[in-house]
Amino acid sequence: MALVSRRHSVAVMARTSALCAHRSSNGAPPSTPADQQKRLHRACAAVRLASRLCADAQRRLDPEDAAAKGDASPVTVADYAAQAIVSHALREEDGSLPIMVAEEAADELRRSSEEARRLRSRVAALVNETLAAFPDTKDQNLSEEEVMDAIDAGAAAGGPKGAFWVLDPIDGTRGFVGMRQYSVCLARLQDGKLEMGVLGCPNLPARALEDGDGDEDAALHDQGELGCLFAAMKGWGTRVGPLFHGDVVPDGPPLLLSTSTKADLSPRFMESFETRHSRHEVSAAVARKLGVERPSLKLDSQCKYGALARGDAPMFMRFPPKGYKEKIWDHAAGTIIVEEAGGTVSDARGNALDFSQGRFLEVEEGIIAAIPQMHQKLVDAVQSVLLK
User: Fold this and answer.
1) Which of 16, 76, 130, 173 does the annotation list as catalytic?
2) Is 79 a catalytic residue?
3) N or C: which terminal CB in the chain sees fewer CB atoms within 10 Å?
């Protein structure tokens, strides 16, 4: 999420929607399991590239400078560059850019001002610096125009027909600036249904979460291994592995949120770090209703979905301010990662999330997720609090 306006150009969206319609109506054969495995490999490789880019950019980040300068800040450069590098990595076999619903657009970069020229140059430099650091991409070098075109591949409208990717290049911008948690989130939908999802969490500890792991500057103080890659595919399960080394696709055993999960032995809940993203007073009231006494784990981004999938906590709650519209890129990857591990994600009334409505989600009152034996209890407690 960038700290600048992200109004997509109508012309770009129209071109991308037309392309989507053309590709989805050309009679392509259905995907085979081998096709799906190849796509998952590409998705994991793309998220690894973007995660390395973001981790390097965060280490060079001046938080005050980023917050003050807005659209010329290093975090904005990383937002654009991460989207460009994922889009580039997902190119089709014929070299065409992917159909993608993503958060950023290159409108700001295409302006003729000196400020835009400098920003374009910085974005392209970060993309090419990252490509040069990996053996498989070291000979690839993108022009500024190619970088902007890759960013604008994210202007697809989404909807119930066809296949497309969904990307949040940096989910948890304020966490990124504050040296807290953030994630690179990529999912794929087919006819409005989640097909696969990948989360790159550069600052997430490999161990189970502890108090303070989501706090300001937490990423600077942890002495253990940081960086987790979660990958899920329909029918394949959810797996997790190290983000910055190891196999491209995590090869460990599937995560399984069974009735004996360790998270249920000491109940607590997760919620957004920022109060502007979720009403903490509602979460606290629900926790009291459930008899949860431990304080919440506050984390930015979809890292919460990954943490739930591996059993760090049994539930999370998100109650945004009235009138807020949820975007599909803020929940798509995390949802399939939790669901393939055996958990449940829904709106606050217990309805499954519907990703077929375009770029936004139509949800009732908030979003919750939980291990299987706690979800209905959580729904009941939420409704009891909200109906007061």
Assistant:
1) 173
2) yes
3) C
- What is the identity of the amino acid at 38? K
Which pLDDT tens digit goes with each residue over 158-201? 999 999 999 999 999 888 988 899 999 999 999 999 999 999 99
CB atoms within 10 A of CB 141: 12
Residue 202 confidence (pLDDT) = 96
Token digits for 18?
A: 């037309």
| 370 backbone dihedrals φ, ψ, rounded to 5° | -160, 160
Catalytic residue among 79, 107, 312, 347: 79
- Alpha-carbon span 77 to 119, nearest angstrom: 7
Helix orientation angle between 280-290 and 375-386, rounded to the nearest 10 degrees: 120
Closest CA to 229 of 210, 203, 192: 203
How far apart are alpha carbons 23 and 133 in whole angstroms?
A: 33
Distances (CA, A) of 211 to 156, 183, 269, 281: 39, 19, 12, 19
Active site residue 347: no
Using the predicted structure, report yes or no on whether residue 19 has a pLDDT greater than 60: no
* Cα distance between residue 167 and residue 174, in whole Å: 18
